[in-house]
Design goal:
By secondary structure, the chain is α+β, with helices and mostly antiparallel strands. About 25% of the residues lie in helices and about 30% in strands. It is built from ten helices and 17 strands. The strands form three sheets. Strands 9, 10, 11, 12, 13, 14, 15, 16 and 17 form a nine-stranded antiparallel sheet that branches. α1 crosses α9. The longest helix has 21 residues. The mean pLDDT is about 95. Bound molecules: adenosine-5'-diphosphate and magnesium ion. The site of adenosine-5'-diphosphate has 16 residues, from β6 and β14.
């Protein structure tokens, strides 16, 4: 079913990803309608409409469903049951959401798809954590099954006497315990998939994190990572196909000494793909809109020699006068208002000549 320009695209979540999706949708002549409980989420500055309601408000979701032609989501912590009222208008489907929002289900699913993850155990008590330490050894990281992002909901255990402290630090919530991976680097594979199975990849970005938050993505990635991309793409495609995914799907990898290990998946456009706005022929945002509206795929090759994308986190956004004065730097400011430590406020992309 083609959704033609002039139609309205619903976007659940009104953060910077929703904002950049709405901007790409507008270029193709679509209107965007944001569904988000906050007062003035930054995507609403560039969208035609905003429904302000809780993500589990079924009556509001029903009205929203009637007002839009197709609907997507920009973050994965949307409760799955209430959004069933969006029916087949929802792309990607609730399955992609359900798998990606629970780290235990996600890891099982990835392994069923024949891809590898770091050794892990499901934990629901301090006893389970102790058992995981005995089974997996140290160091390991506890990650809550739900609602983690930007390193939140995680605690490291480097010696056995840190177990209780780490379990308390994640709020004694159902979690996974995962072995520390001595990776050489991290990279991501981003794919866009159409309902009929057509798909396109972008060049992979090598990703640097600080305190669990993405700092920089670089394209092309280093030789060591390039050698792992074919296997990583195969794994990504198997995951996308098993989900019946429509739209953009991102898979984060650790480049380990014995090949690519999946860290996590995001059923959506991703921070490590922001460089595609200026660095690739078609951006991840436009391609996602094309896929969910069933327009033909755009080309995804490099515009030039690659790109480096730096996030502007917290007070770093205050460097904007210097950045906008830098010739050739593409400055993106999300218009979020309040600067908070660790908050993604914008990014800068420098395309390689
Ligand atoms: P988030 O949902 O917050 O992005 P991730 O699981 O991707 O959570 O973790 C954030 C970052 O923390 C990763 O990109 C990586 O740098 C580091 N990290 C996470 N898990 C591991 C691990 N098992 N071994 C080593 N580093 C890890
Ligand atoms: Mg991550």
């Amino acid at each position: 079913m083609t959704v033609p320009p002039g139609s309205t695209i619903g976007i659940i979540g009104g953060g910077q990803l929703g904002r950049m999706l709405a901007m790409a949708a507008a270029q193709l002549g679509y209107r965007s309608h944001i569904f988000d409980p906050h007062e003035r989420p930054c995507a609403t500055d560039v969208a035609a409409a905003h429904t302000r309601a809780a993500f589990d408000d079924v009556a509001a979701l029903e009205r929203f469903a009637a007002a839009i032609d197709v609907v997507t989501y920009e973050f994965e912590n949307v409760p799955v049951e209430p959004i069933r009222v969006l029916t087949e208008k929802l792309r990607p489907s609730a399955k992609s959401l359900a798998v990606a929002q629970d780290r235990a289900r996600e890891k099982e699913f990835i392994e069923q798809c024949g891809a590898r993850v770091a050794p892990w155990r499901e934990v629901a008590s301090l006893d389970d954590v102790e058992r995981a330490i005995a089974d997996l050894g140290l160091a390991l990281v506890l990650k809550t099954r739900r609602y983690g992002y930007d390193g939140k909901g995680q605690a490291w255990i480097r010696s056995a006497d840190e177990a209780a402290e780490a379990w308390a630090a994640i709020g004694e919530q159902p979690a996974v315990a995962e072995s520390a991976i001595a990776f050489e680097s991290e990279f991501s594979v981003i794919v866009a998939r159409w309902a009929d199975g057509r798909h396109s990849f972008w060049d992979s970005a090598e990703n640097e994190h600080g305190e669990g938050i993405l700092r920089r993505s670089t394209v092309p990635c280093s030789e060591a990572v390039v050698a792992q991309i074919a296997e990583a793409r195969e794994a990504t495609l198997r995951i996308a196909e098993a989900l019946g995914h429509i739209g953009v799907l991102t898979v984060e990898f650790f480049a380990s000494a014995d090949g690519p290990l999946v860290n996590e998946i995001a059923p959506r456009v991703h921070n490590s793909g922001h460089w595609t706005i200026e660095g690739a022929v078609t951006s991840q945002f436009e391609q996602h809109i094309r896929a969910i509206c069933d327009l033909p795929p755009g080309l995804t090759g490099l515009m030039r020699g690659g790109a480096v994308m730096d996030n502007l986190i917290g007070a770093e956004v205050e460097r904007w006068p210097e950045l906008v004065a830098e010739r050739g730097a593409h400055v993106h400011i999300y218009g979020k208002g309040e600067v908070r430590p660790g908050r993604k406020m914008g990014h800068v992309t420098r395309v390689k000549r």
